[in-house]
Design a protein that fits this description.
- This protein has 309 residues and is an alpha/beta fold.
- It contains 14 helices and 5 strands.
- It has helices spanning 31-44, 71-80, 94-105, 113-125, 131-138, 142-150, 156-159, 174-180, 185-195, 200-216, 232-256, 259-267, 271-298, 301-304; strands spanning 10-13, 18-19, 50-54, 65-69, 84-89.
- Strands 1-5-3-4-2 form a 5-stranded mixed beta sheet.
- The longest helix is centred in the last third of the chain and has 28 residues, at 271-298.
- The two termini are 36 Å apart.
Length: 309
């Protein structure tokens, strides 16, 4: 067994000499979550160091470092006025800075669909990165990432439906948005009232029927690019990447929710909303149990014998 050795140094840095990275992928930060994190850091200490690099190029007066990863912790530390534990890495320019920031960020708090789409677009266009490398860096399956990428073909009004503060009943399912993105933007907007309130499968059928109507009027419909044939390994990739994100989401939620605040918040909601919330949590558990049964049934016999009952 190899002997332990020191491979890095953690510094304590005043957050005022650190500047945020304007190009960092994450754009949305919950104010309450930031306040809670700051109070926790001040009371219990900072558990994970942020990552910074020495400032390069133009910088504001007094700035010695640029942030690479840890903007929530940086914002929270500034608010409660404490020093930050940080690891300093070497970054030579903005392009290398973005690559380091995007990769680090995707293994923390979940991103919005639009944030993911914009990162993928930059990896493809500015970095000429191939899909296997993008999948490795972001930990999300290729087909899922391609669905996110299609969101950039939506008009601004529809892209806003994927922001965190959008009410649940106004959000578009990814599968519906993917079908919608193949139409000209004015056609997309005209279809929204027709699919409002519809189930995802009903909405997709309405959109697909409109393809023929649009083409008959001389409009252009982008067809889905034909990729390679689906392989068995694609299914397991889909399962493992989605499960990893769900686990990350659940961990984030359980860490952020304080029982007393939750109790007060639930007391202020109407009965129907509370019943709906519990029902949706039940649907998650039911779906997980169904998937578990399906995966167990597909396991090789020698593996099944070793699985816990």
């Amino acid at each position: 067994m190899a002997k332990p050795k020191q491979v890095g140094v953690i510094w304590e840095i005043d957050p005022s000499v650190i500047d945020h990275f304007p190009d960092q992928p994450r754009k949305h930060f919950g104010l309450v979550a930031l306040q809670n994190l700051g109070n926790s850091m001040k009371t219990d200490g900072q558990k994970d160091p942020i990552i910074v690099c020495a400032a390069y190029g133009k910088r504001n007066k007094g700035i010695e470092y640029f942030l690479v990863d840890g903007e929530r912790r940086w914002k929270s530390a500034k608010e409660v006025k404490i020093l930050l534990k940080a690891i300093v890495i070497s970054v030579k320019d903005a392009k290398e800075h973005y690559l380091a920031s995007a990769t680090a960020n995707f293994h923390r708090e979940p991103h919005t669909e639009m944030e993911i789409a914009k990162v993928v677009q930059r990896f493809l266009t500015e970095y000429d990165m191939k899909w296997p490398e993008i999948v490795r860096r972001l930990g999300i399956g290729e087909q899922t990432l391609k669905k996110y990428l299609e969101l950039l073909d939506l008009p601004y009004e529809l892209q806003q439906k994927f922001q965190p503060n959008t009410p649940r009943d106004q959000r578009l399912p990814i599968s519906v948005a993917s079908e919608l993105s193949r139409l000209p933007k004015e056609e997309q907007l005209s279809l929204v009232p027709r699919i409002k309130g519809k189930r995802a499968d009903e909405a997709r059928e309405i959109i697909r029927r409109s393809y023929t109507e649009v083409e008959a009027r001389g409009g252009e419909v982008k067809r889905a690019a034909r990729g390679r044939d689906r392989r068995p390994s694609d299914d397991i990739e889909l399962v493992t990447t989605r499960i990893a994100r769900i686990i990350a989401d659940m961990k984030f939620l359980t860490e952020q929710i304080a029982p007393e605040r939750l109790r007060k918040a639930l007391a202020g909601r109407n009965l129907g909303n509370n019943v709906g919330l519990v029902s949706e949590l039940g649907d998650i558990c039911t779906g997980a149990a169904t998937l578990r049964t399906k995966v167990r049934a597909a396991m090789p016999d020698d593996v099944k014998q070793r699985l816990p009952k």
